Amino acid sequence: MLRFIEGEAKMTTAPRGRKLPMADDDILPAVLRPTDGEQRLWGKGSLVTVKLTAEQTRGALGMTHFTAEFGERSPSHIHTLEDEIFMIRSGGVRATVGERTELLEGGSVLFLPRGIPHSYEVESDSAELYVLTCPGGFERFFLHGGYPVELGEAAPVGNRWSVDRTKEIAEKLGLGILWQD
Known about the structure:
mainly beta, Jelly Rolls, 2 domains, seven-stranded antiparallel beta sheet, 2 helices, 14 strands, RmlC_Cupin_sf, RmlC-like_jellyroll, Cupin domain-containing protein, QDO-like
């Protein structure tokens, strides 16, 4: 992270695999390494890392990174509070937006304005993607809905996961999700 003190830039970084420290009186620019952030096991055994939270960005955005396994999916839903951007880094993700379905591969970007029904499913052996939500706050869904993981752990979530549990957590957090499935 950069902090400007009397015209001089100071650099610090988040500890490996940890949350970024927050300043009491201001928001600092952030430098995030690949292993920085809070990690959770998700869905069919995928790993989600919350990289930036609304608290760290004055509410502007939230950012998560997924290392998703084949078959990982979200049921069709509508965000009422935020826009969403998917940035596919590698692999293949089939996205359905409204009535349109398309395979998105590494390098693809998908912008989803709030109010548009959408879903996705990983069709390759694995996929890596970033998800940005604007404004921030939706990343709480992954922090509360995922299962804590130690850095490097890759155990599948297995039978602990369910779509009903996911819907329940979103409702409890007041995320304004309208489920279509």
